[in-house]
Amino acid sequence: MPQDELQDQMLDVASSATIPEVPSVAGEDGIAPPLGDMSAEEFRRHGRAVVDWMADYFERVEQLPVLAQVEPGEPISKLPAEPPESGRPMEAILADVDRLVVPALTHWSHPGFFAYFATSTSAPGIFGEMLSAAFDVKALLWRGAPAAQELEEVTLSWLRQMIGLPKAFSGIIYDTASVSTLHAIAAAREGLDLRVREDGMSGRADLPLLRVYASEQAHSSVEKCVITLGLGQRSLRKVPTDAEFRMDPAALARAIEEDRAAGHLPFCVVATVGTTSTSSIDPVPAIADLCGRERLWLHVDAAYAGSAAVVPELRHILDGSERADSLVLNPHKWLMTPFDLSVLFTRRMDLLHRAFSLVPEYLRTLDREQEAVRNHSEYGIQLGRRFRALKFWMVLRYFGRDGLAARIREHCRLARLFASWFEAAPGWELLAPVPLSLVCFRACPPRDGETADECAARLDRLNEQIMHAVNASGEAFLSHTKLHDCFTLRLAVGNIRTTEQHVARVWQLLREAYERLDPAGGG
Amino acid sequence: MPQDELQDQMLDVASSATIPEVPSVAGEDGIAPPLGDMSAEEFRRHGRAVVDWMADYFERVEQLPVLAQVEPGEPISKLPAEPPESGRPMEAILADVDRLVVPALTHWSHPGFFAYFATSTSAPGIFGEMLSAAFDVKALLWRGAPAAQELEEVTLSWLRQMIGLPKAFSGIIYDTASVSTLHAIAAAREGLDLRVREDGMSGRADLPLLRVYASEQAHSSVEKCVITLGLGQRSLRKVPTDAEFRMDPAALARAIEEDRAAGHLPFCVVATVGTTSTSSIDPVPAIADLCGRERLWLHVDAAYAGSAAVVPELRHILDGSERADSLVLNPHKWLMTPFDLSVLFTRRMDLLHRAFSLVPEYLRTLDREQEAVRNHSEYGIQLGRRFRALKFWMVLRYFGRDGLAARIREHCRLARLFASWFEAAPGWELLAPVPLSLVCFRACPPRDGETADECAARLDRLNEQIMHAVNASGEAFLSHTKLHDCFTLRLAVGNIRTTEQHVARVWQLLREAYERLDPAGGG
């Protein structure tokens, strides 16, 4: 068909009555146009307003209560039960962020956030997320976003060098440590050559019970991983820890021996560098020795603490990890990178690929690139992948290795400083060593004539009350754990805005609460 | 200890020589300060520059080649092999986005992006991501981010109403459809009451082979899910489809019957509303009947097409889905929401909770909120969760239901229009119906004296060449699939900026390539 006939035909069809056309005039009064996105002019105006809002937010966040002071159901009660039929002006929506969202948030960007693991977003990371949201790539194949795939390879090679892992390790970005660890254990399972990928584990009398080992202090995600993978909670054997909450390698060796004797199949050990309760560090060199002898996959969970290896004098926390099969480290925890970005390093990318590669026809590429490139979607559950490497690249370049190390070093200094106050204060005690930026402590005023049980119950109650009092102040947010069955307060330093004055203020709030709640015991 | 003594002690320790303090003066020349984040003033300046950059990007994206014109390894070769030791000024980093990132991107925000499923970011969604990166919450517990949890419940209730699912469905946000479907199948597995969570599937002679069913046209993620869950590829039975690529319910019934006879245990059927290759829609009402009779979990994969149910005259695509146990829909595909945001609706949140709940002490909350709230981390693998509901809330409010419906309706109109040109043009054919916004087609110039095999090979080659020619133009990006073993071109409309002129241009490019590559066959 000649070109002009074709054009005629196109116009004919386009104007046919059966396919009505929608008018596409620009929107008015700040509402969305009938079709298409917001105009460039409005994007500029509102976008700048959002940037200014964020700058103001960071300046005033310290005046906001760090822990949300709302009741369950309160945010929902302020929102309409039915979906909006027509669009609203952007101004009104942004105003509602102030009115509805901010008061119902716990402010992780507040320098007084010391709960769980305190974490930090940062300006270069936010700019990276902004650009990533505009590009909106789904990095499912190399060709779908070459920069995403290759920037991921480069930044993870940089990170590998920064923490001193050998070149044999390759990295891949997932969303969270739970998912990174899931992939590590799945690769370990694939390495068993038991055709679990092909034949699965149900309806097979030939399969022994598969065993994974982690310490009693390991993160709950390890247990969730074995549940998800169909291995079941029974497959996870929790190894006892020593007085400082570190896995006992002798106990691990005994467990493996027992399991082999019982006909089970040990295949993976998860060691933790920086446990969630206390930041204790498992003796990885001894565990690596054992894994080498027993031919078990060694996965190191360094989700929180791994970042500290960027600091030269703290590099030793990863001693032994160079012999691991895989290691997870979360830049979104302690490398000033907005959530989410978790990194799995492994020397067995081949097994990860064997466990997860599946390329349907509609994703096959046809030219020579097929051979030359790595498509990270073939190394995991998720097919679409956000362009997370961009923010990480911007963070690494803006702060540099030295700048990141300085911040982590300062966080550790603040934690040690905070801990030093407890050492000197009667009526308080530290409950675990402070190798990094987490302090575990409690108030422990003595009282005469109590049984041990009565004392334990009293101290648990007192410390819980102290925690609630501090959190109710809005100036700081602490969380807790249990150590040796004692209610334990945790202070985790990790926010980029946290300074000495913020930890000093927590100490003051703690003392005030203590004196109010236990006037007799007060020092 | 009295307050003033305490202060003295704090100061003493703070100034002790063993804990050196790092100077904290403001940075110069646009580089990071020694500690802390970028100053508010600089944040404002650079943030506005990023906003302007994004506005410019959207204005010029059409002038960029939609498919990245780089060779594998080219982006990496332009980046240093070693990590930056010290920080760089933000200006330099942003300049490198232009220099290094943009040329190595495939532009998913380009209106000529028609590959895979075209998707779309939008201004309100980008603003939501910006705010979310500043808040940086990890919505692991309600109290960690009440607004995140409750906005998620509200927006998903809105979405449920918009697509006409009954109130018995609750929603939860995950990152991708792969992960949503993984959770659905895991919940189905939990519903078997076979103690898979507790005891796993290895070392159990008592477990029969568990079976999942999906059509031959189902997304590859279903297979990846059964691999991950330890069910294995063997557990997935692929059901034949009819001439229009829809699951054959009679074949499904036969497969289930055969499996039961062989002692296997059918437990889950995945029906697809909008398959990836052709957007075909499985006969969900008939499949739901069967699942009801056989007591199987019905999961509906409506990741792409489900959004179309927002359009009143397209609501029928979800007929039967109201009887499903779960359904996945990706707002990041066709609801103008930046990647990632996938929604799983299910009437069995209880089973999802039973499959994934695991609350360690350090995440236990202690007050009455425990009873009243839902913590979405107890309903999935991931513990930390991004504040994704914020961008979705902003998108829903800015466009409103009507605005989203108008855009989806327009995309469908463009696809039908594009398809209509093929119906009228000799030498071209449609290879599948066009129920939504995806068109499957090929050039098929006749040639005398060929065997069927020769003809098939010639047409495959020709269409592959046509696709590469169109993609090499930089003006459009198409992908392909195989239908009835024929190389098939796909045009998927889904970007908010795509207009009639863009699909008309593809038709012109296709014709030009065709005439150049097959002058004899040209119409």
UniProtKB/TrEMBL annotation, chains A, B:
Cellular-component GO terms for this entry = cytoplasm
Q: Which family does it belong to?
A: Belongs to the group II decarboxylase family.
Q: Which cofactor does it need?
A: pyridoxal 5'-phosphate
Note whether Lyase occurs among the keywords: yes
User: What's a Gene Ontology MF term here?
Assistant: carboxy-lyase activity
Under the heading InterPro entries, the entry gives: Aromatic_deC, PyrdxlP-dep_de-COase, PyrdxlP-dep_Trfase, PyrdxlP-dep_Trfase_major, PyrdxlP-dep_Trfase_small
Residues modified as N6-(pyridoxal phosphate)lysine are: 333
| Keyword list, A-Z | Decarboxylase, Lyase, Pyridoxal phosphate
The uppermost taxa in this organism's lineage are:
Bacteria, Pseudomonadati, Pseudomonadota, Alphaproteobacteria, Hyphomicrobiales
User: Could you identify this protein by its name?
Assistant: Aromatic-L-amino-acid decarboxylase
- Choose any GO biological process term that the UniProt entry carries and state it: amino acid metabolic process
